[in-house]
Amino acid sequence: MEQFRIDEIARRLLDSVPPAFRSMQQDLEANFRSVLRSSLGKLDVVTREEFDTQMKVLERTRSKLEALEQKVAVLESQGAQRAGAAGN
Fold first, then answer.
1. CA dihedral 32, 35, 41, 47 (to 10 degrees)
2. Contacts of residue 13, Cβ cutoff 8 Å, sequence gap at least 6
């Protein structure tokens, strides 16, 4: 996860802390960031850029597969026609 998002989440968590505990703001903020980085680092996630790249690869692959399926269907059709003509 991007550093900016972790910092934003840490700030939001800090804003939810009761005012009496805000005197320990720096310690809390550092702990929030540490816990967030550690927890989020364990998740099996990819960046948006990686996801978008893989989506493009999948779209190209799907397009190629559909074109190959059409070619196979045409070839099967031609083969069936030839077999029918040879059998007559």
1. -20
2. 32
State both tokens at 33.
């960031």
Judge whether 42 and 3 are in contact, CB under 8 Å: no
CA distance 59 to 21: 51
If one counts the domains in the chain, the total is: 2
Kindly state the tokens that stand for 38.
């550690």
Q: Which domain holds residue 13?
A: 1-45
Instruction: Summarize pLDDT for 36-66 with one digit per residue, the tens.
Output: 888 877 888 788 899 999 999 999 999 999 9
If asked whether residues 4 and 28 sit together in one domain, one would say: yes
Q: Is 0.70 topped by the overall pTM?
A: no
